[in-house]
């Protein structure tokens, strides 16, 4: 069995999707459709940048969703089938598109609104990656202003919260950082994603998600907030809403896919973000890039 994995923010890069646009008619059709739906030239932004604008969450989210859909067409051309899908944060929308739960147009409209709702919280917080600590080991260094947002692997955790709160965690870890027992890296983000600071964005998206047409999935979907596969539509919707402020349990997602009998992971989208991340979770089965 195969699992398709879809990347989230951080996978954007100038030139993304260009090769697929030029060689796969169905991929070209998707990007042309995205331009029409969004009302601006997403193709030019993806192909030519500037990277500063492409990294802005309100543009990054539609770009990554569209690019992953284009790579899905590439996978279809290559005859690669899939039994499970999972997406990292934003990538969960791409996974739902691949599972037939949402249409391309509805998915694009959702991520466009999600990006704008999250961008409205810009400047109110930040995020940092902590490498070398498990979830239990990191807990004593946390404070009320910070949460563990992304559990990417057993010892790679992204924290999210107020700037002051993140500063305090870094200060508390300083001795361990200096002795290189722990690595602490600030992320280049404009807000505290997957934290209570996104509550307004979650509130804004709730009715939109509830009122979007969701179809029965044609394969198992792994939700970020549980890390477990499901085909239940109400659960899928509820999890999609709560993941805006909730955790991305990626480590659990990959291990649960492995336990389900997955023989091969495929990263479907631009770059190798998830392929590299998976190496910190399990070496088998391997992850190939489409």
From TrEMBL:
Question: What GO cellular-component annotations does this UniProt entry give?
Answer: cytosol
Alphabetized InterPro entries for the sequence: Ac_transferase_dom_sf, Acyl_transferase_dom, Acyl_Trfase/lysoPLipase, Mal-CoA-ACP_Trans/PKS_FabD, Malonyl_CoA-ACP_transAc, Malonyl_CoA-ACP_transAc_FabD, Malonyl_transacylase_ACP-bd
Q: Which UniProt keywords apply?
A: Acyltransferase, Transferase
Q: Please state every residue range assigned to the domain named Malonyl-CoA:ACP transacylase (MAT).
A: 5-287
Instruction: Identify the stretch annotated as signal peptide in this record.
Output: none
Q: Which GO terms describe its molecular function?
A: [acyl-carrier-protein] S-malonyltransferase activity
Q: Iron-sulfur: present as a keyword of the record?
A: no
Supply the SMART domains for this chain: PKS_AT
Its EC number is 2.3.1.39
What class does this enzyme belong to in the EC scheme? transferase
Q: Which domain of life is it from?
A: Bacteria
List the catalysed reactions.
Answer: holo-[ACP] + malonyl-CoA = malonyl-[ACP] + CoA
One of the protein's GO biological processes: fatty acid biosynthetic process
Active-site positions on this chain:
89, 194
Hey, which family's this protein in? Belongs to the fabD family.
PANTHER family per UniProt? MALONYL-COA-ACYL CARRIER PROTEIN TRANSACYLASE, MITOCHONDRIAL (PTHR42681)
Protein name from the UniProt record: Malonyl CoA-acyl carrier protein transacylase
Instruction: Tell me the organism.
Output: Pseudobutyrivibrio xylanivorans
């Amino acid at each position: 069995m195969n699992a398709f994995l879809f990347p989230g923010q951080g996978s954007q890069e100038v030139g993304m999707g260009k090769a697929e646009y030029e060689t796969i008619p169905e991929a070209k059709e998707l990007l042309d459709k995205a331009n029409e739906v969004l009302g601006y030239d997403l193709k030019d932004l993806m192909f030519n940048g500037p990277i500063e604008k492409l990294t802005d969450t309100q543009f990054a989210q539609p770009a990554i969703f569209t690019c992953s859909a284009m790579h899905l067409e590439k996978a279809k051309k290559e005859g690669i089938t899939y039994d499970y899908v999972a997406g990292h944060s934003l990538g969960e929308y791409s996974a739902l598109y691949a599972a037939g739960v949402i249409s391309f147009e509805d998915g694009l409209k959702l991520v466009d609104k999600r990006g704008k709702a999250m961008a409205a919280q810009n400047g109110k917080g930040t995020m940092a990656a902590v490498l070398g600590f498990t979830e239990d080991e990191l807990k004593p260094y946390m404070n009320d202003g910070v949460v563990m947002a992304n559990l990417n692997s057993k010892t790679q955790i992204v924290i999210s919260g107020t700037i002051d709160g993140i500063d305090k965690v870094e200060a508390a870890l300083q001795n361990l950082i200096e002795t290189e027992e722990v690595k602490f890296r600030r992320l280049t983000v404009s807000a505290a994603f997957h934290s209570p600071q996104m509550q307004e964005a979650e509130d804004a998206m709730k009715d939109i998600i509830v009122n979007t047409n969701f179809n029965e999935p044609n394969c198992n979907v792994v939700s970020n907030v549980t890390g477990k596969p499901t085909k239940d539509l109400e659960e899928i919707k509820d999890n999609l809403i709560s993941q805006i402020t909730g955790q991305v349990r990626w480590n659990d997602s990959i291990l649960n896919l492995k336990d389900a009998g997955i023989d091969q992971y495929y990263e479907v989208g631009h770059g190798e973000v998830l392929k590299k991340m998976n190496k910190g979770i399990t070496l088998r089965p391997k992850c190939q890039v489409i």
